[in-house]
Specification:
This protein is α/β, with parallel strands linked by helices. The protein contains 11 helices and 8 strands. The protein binds phosphoenolpyruvate (PEP).
């Protein structure tokens, strides 16, 4: 089953208006130059830049995503943004359960699951993040932790059309450290097995599982050529047009 690779940038809490606009315009221009790339592209700027980036991406096949959403449609939730609002702002995707949100905001699997259901109802695709800490890896619990995160945070009505999984070892995010390619493939294959149990084999075989954690132009080929790796969720390197584009090129997108 051929799964189209997704090259996704998570800008996190970075970029003011001018910088974000330039970055989006630069990515749009490079993706246009690729003609018909074999991968899909996604950028996830902070909320403040969503509408501006949407405009800057005009005419380029680059989807827009947000980095979080509330599970309610509207109401008394100061500081939060609903999936319906994100859809209205032009988003097609929303990242949910990033380890930085699990750590900074105490987000649980149950909460992430609720947010994903709300995202589907608004017509958004959810990029649901999972991944173990260094302590969990060192104590041999990687597969157990990731499996439990999948079982808890992926809704029962998830399928390949509304959900992408991102495996991001917490200790590899922003550190320059990465697991070996063999470790990554082992986790991705195990995650796909759990997805098959939960959602059926057909769904699991179609669902994209991205790797994230210090993906750079230099290691993109190694990770993105693994059989169960269907793209990348990229933090730091997504903030430079040339790095983001080099990752896509090295991954064989064009
Ligand atoms: C991320 O933020 O999802 C991420 C993987 O960051 P980095 O690529 O910087 O490790």
């Amino acid at each position: 089953m051929a799964r189209k690779k997704l090259i996704a940038g998570n800008w996190k809490m970075n970029c003011l208006l001018a910088e974000g606009t330039d970055l989006a315009k630069g990515i749009a221009a490079e993706v246009k130059k690729m003609g018909k790339p074999s991968c899909e592209f996604l950028v996830c700027p902070p909320f403040t830049l969503l509408t501006t980036v949407k405009k800057a991406l005009r005419g380029a096949k680059v989807a827009l995503g947000a980095q979080d959403a509330h599970f309610n449609v509207k109401g008394a939730h100061t500081g939060d943004v609903s999936p319906v609002m994100l859809k209205d702002a032009g988003c097609q995707y929303v990242i949910l359960g990033h380890s930085e949100r699990r750590a900074d905001h105490g987000e649980s699997n149950e909460l992430i699951n609720k947010k994903a259901v709300a995202a589907y109802e608004a017509g958004l695709k959810a990029v649901i993040c999972i991944g173990e800490t260094l302590e969990q890896r060192d104590s041999g619990k990687t597969i157990e932790v990731c499996s439990n995160q999948i079982l808890g945070s992926v809704p029962d009505n998830a399928d390949a059309s509304n959900t992408v999984i991102a495996y991001e070892p917490v200790w590899a995010i922003g550190t320059g450290k990465t697991p070996t390619a063999q470790d990554v493939e082992e986790v991705h294959a195990a995650v796909r097995k759990v997805l098959a149990k939960k959602l059926g084999k057909g769904n699991a075989n179609k669902m994209r599982i991205l790797y994230g954690g210090s993906v750079k132009p230099g290691n993109a080929k190694e990770f993105l050529s693994l059989p169960d790796v269907d793209g990348a969720l990229i933090g730091g390197a997504s903030l430079k047009v040339e790095d983001f584009v080099a990752i896509a090129k090295n991954a064989g997108c064009c």
